[in-house]
Amino acid sequence: MQKGQINVQTENIFPIIKKFLYSDHEIFLRELISNAIDATQKLKTLASLGKFKDELGDITVEVILDEKAKTLTIRDKGIGMTAEEVDKYINQIAFSGAEEFVKKFKSKTEAEKNSIIGKFGLGFYSSFMVSDNVEILSKTYKKGGATKAVKWECDGSPDYTIEEIDKTSRGTDVVLHISEESKEFLSENKILELLNKYNKFMPVPIQFGTEKTQEKIEGEKDKDGNDVYKEVEKDRIINNTNPIWKKAPADLKDEDYKGFYHELYPMNFDEPLFQIHLNVDYPFNLTGILYFPKLKKNLEVQKDKIQLYSNQVFITDSVEGVVPEFLTLLHGVIDSPDIPLNVSRSYLQSDGAVKKIANHISKKVADKLEELFKNNREDFEKKWDDIKVFIEYGMLSDDKFYDRAQKFCLLKNSEGKYFTLEEYKEHVKDLQTDKDKKIVYLYSSNVEEQYNFIQLAKDRGYDVLEMEGVLDNHFVNAIEQKLSDIQFKRVDADTIDKLIAKEDEMPSKLDDKQKETLKPIIENNIDKVKFTVVFEPLGEDDQPFVITQSEFMRRMKDMEKLGGGGMMAMGGFPDSFNLVVNTNHNLVGSLLEEKDEKKQASTVKQMYDLAMLSQNLLKGKDLAEFIKRSFSLIK
Q: Are 99 and 143 in contact (CB under 8 A)?
């Protein structure tokens, strides 16, 4: 037996590993299985190069839990190690097994180079985060010479022992004697949870325990002619070794993508709208599949739905900062060997390679959306309501995405017709350019509540956009800043007749003197603090009183709801509305003819309350009095 001390710069290496190197102790299993996969992949590469001529046989990596012995074993059938290699790769931390291997056997293709993952060395020492004692039992694939099996053992101090043992099978067992404070890792459910989290798509089969399943008995039928099944126990294989993101898009069908989506999210029963298959080999390596889910109108953002991998090894599902913010609305997988495995998320967010990957993904998403729009606009329009939030989010948060998305961002009008930004500008500029040479985009934020205003606009020949989305307020502001010659106005904001040129204005039945006489009659029967009386010549069939709010004030109130400083901090903007009096309505004219002041006041209040009711502003006592007055008028 050989005894010795691990050749480290400081004796405090183990406390450092336990406390600082890994933020999450459960990572140890990912590291050890990555090493086992690495050892197996190396043997496969040697075989492909003709340097290993025996049969590979079963190369499944096994995870073995023994609750009574309080051990967890990770067993591979890979290249194994000699005593000399154990001393080099395990005792001399500065060396990396995978790096040494790459130097010795440089693969001809990039794919073969990338198949060698992990660093056998530092990752192995994560095992001491959860163990009192760790053993390595290993037998090399090499023949002859000093190739006897070897056992290495260490109790978490720099002291170790190496001795020869009898082991007939090629490969390595890492046996962890789990410490009392880490006994949660002696639970079968816990180990299964970690395997499913970190190792679900690793490229070599991983077996953990057994599972019961139903197997058809060939040739047997029941009395009704149905197949007969029996319960059998078989090895439980954790992973899908060849996930579809590693396959060529040309080899896949829509059903394959949908099947994989439900494999990723078994509890999500909705079908994705469509997907983008990423497959890049320059200037970095990147594969993956991003799915567009159906987004709810109230923006129920489900983060942690993109899984980040490095060569099929799970890194994280917290990708904020790693990919552009708006892409976190998507679901799916991103896999790149250029993303470091053992680093914090804050490092990922500042890593240059990761930033390039994020920018590229954003470009690919924009390219795919543009392609879908160009190839089948009709189908794209059908999906618009589901992807609108995503595209608006991207345009608001990413200037480069905004520039690309202008080509396929759509505006939908009250007739259900869709226009690109450029198309809509051409559609309305002739009729909806105001006195300041601004093209006015009329829009509705609630089709039901603003129905009368929409009809009023349409009667004038104007077009009204539907802007009911959760991000539309922000989107309106952004578009106005980008396109300086246009202005959005909600259809119930300022009266739409402001759009009409002076010479085309509708004549008024009331002259200025009559308006002056009428104004105090109206003001005495309304809330003069909240409402400013404005006279406008609308159509005879339009409402006698219409309540509007200036576009500026309405937007300030919307900002106030979201929180902010200035006036918001001093109690908020006061409610302020216009009461637009239609000077062409017969009821308004009849107010001047009515000599009974009580009847005059009652008529004003009734028309005022009807206008209030149309804007959902009539509440409480005022609503009760309106109902009582209405029944009285009917009687």
A: no
Q: Are 611 and 601 in contact (CB under 8 A)?
A: no
Nearest Cα to Cα of residue 550 among 507, 510, 501, 498 = 498
Crossing angle of helices 97-104 and 27-48, rounded to 10°: 20
Of the listed ranges 128-132, 191-195, 350-354, 371-375, the one predicted with least confidence:
350-354
Dist CA 149 CA 86 (whole Å): 11
Q: How many C-beta atoms lie closer than 10 Å to residue 116's C-beta?
A: 21
End-to-end CA distance of the chain: 111
Kindly state the tokens that stand for 241.
């070794």
Do the bridges between strand 2-5 and strand 206-221 make them parallel or antiparallel, or are there none, so unpaired?
Answer: unpaired
pLDDT digits (tens, 9 = 90+) for 66-115: 999 999 999 999 999 999 888 888 877 533 433 444 455 444 344 343 33
Whether pLDDT at 22 is above 70: no
- What is the H or E stretch that residue 415 is in? none
Domains, the chain, in order of start with CATH, read 2-208 (3.30.565.10), 244-381 (3.30.230.80), 409-502 (3.40.50.11260), 506-634 (1.20.120.790)
Could you tell me the two tokens for 334?
């991103």
Cα distances (Å, whole numbers) of residue 504 to 489, 584, 621: 21, 16, 43
User: Would you call 511 exposed, middle or buried from its count of C-beta atoms within 10 A (0-12, 13-18, 19+)?
Assistant: exposed
Show the tokens assigned to 205.
């089969």
Q: b vs e for 283-314, b when ≥16 Cβ sit within 10 Å of the residue's Cβ?
A: eebbbbbbbbbebeeeeeeeeebbbbbbbbbb
Asked if the peptide bond before residue 283 counts as cis, ω within 30 degrees of 0, the response is yes
Instruction: Look at residue 237 and give its three-state secondary structure.
Output: strand
φ, ψ of residue 368 in degrees (nearest 5): -65, -45
Which residues are registered as beta bridge partners of 230? 215
pTM, entire model: 0.73
Cα distances (Å, whole numbers) of residue 534 to 467, 516, 544, 545, 577? 27, 11, 12, 10, 10
Residue of 503, 504, 434, 439 whose CA lies nearest to 465: 439
